[in-house]
Write a structure and sequence with these properties.
mainly alpha; Cytochrome Bc1 Complex, Chain D, domain 2; 2 domains; 7 helices; 0% strand; electron transfer activity
Amino acid sequence: MFDTMTLTKVVGGLCGTLLVFLLGGWAADIIYGGGHGGHHGEVEQAYSIPVEDAGGDEPAEEAVPFEEVFAAADPAAGEGVWRNCRSCHALEEGVNGTGPSLYGVVGREIGAEAGYSYSGALKAVAEVWTPENLNGFLEAPRDWAPGTKMTYNGLRDVEDRANLIAYLQTIGG
């Protein structure tokens, strides 16, 4: 079926194809890779532009205290932030979901919602849900109360937290 000449043609074709790919890769490296042959990522600077002091020694801007942000909080904007919470919490009194009801939560004793089983981590951190405690918890729940059952990663924006707490303050209580 196969004779020596057919086998020689097949092997020659494969070798020729390999050679074309190797030469093509080498040519592409020279054209597009800058001709550095194997030194990928090492590009010498053709020239440098001297820059005078860019002011990198200035101190970082200090964050505004939460109390000031909370004093200017907008409950209407907090209602929009509430969307992040409503999948696990309810605002109706006594209605618990995955998380406890947040009806009257601002000023409420921690772990006091009837019918909800709290983790001991929350009760060990603080006694009352003050705006400051809620701020710390909402920023990073697992950092503020290690071992908490709440799996939410937290709200990073202090204004969002303040607005949400102001909104929750208008609900119940």
